[in-house]
Structure prediction request, 97 residues.
Amino acid sequence: MAEMQILNDIAVKVGKLEALQETNAKAISDLTSSVNRLVDRLGQSDDLAREADQRARSAHHRLDKIDKIIFWCGSTVIGGIIVTIVAYGMKGGFTTP
Prediction:
C-alpha cells in the first residue's frame, strides 16, 4: 500500500509539473510576442530616424544654396557700388571747381 501512495504522490507531482510547464510555455509565448512587437516598433522608429536625417540634410543643402546666392548678390551690389564710385572719380566727379 505504501507503494501505491508513493506512486499517487508522484502522479500528483507530475501533474503539477505539467501544469507549471504549460503556464511557463504560455508566458514564454507572450514574451516572444511582446519582443516581436518591440522589434517591429524599433524598426519603424529606425526608419523614421533615417527619414528625419535625410530631410535635415536636404534642408541644410537648400540653406547652403540660399546662403551662396545671398553672398553673390551682396558681392555684386557692393562691387557695383565700388565700380560706380571709381567711374565717377575717373570722370573727375571728386574735383572741386
Notes: The radius of gyration is 41 Å. The chain is about 90% helix and 0% strand.
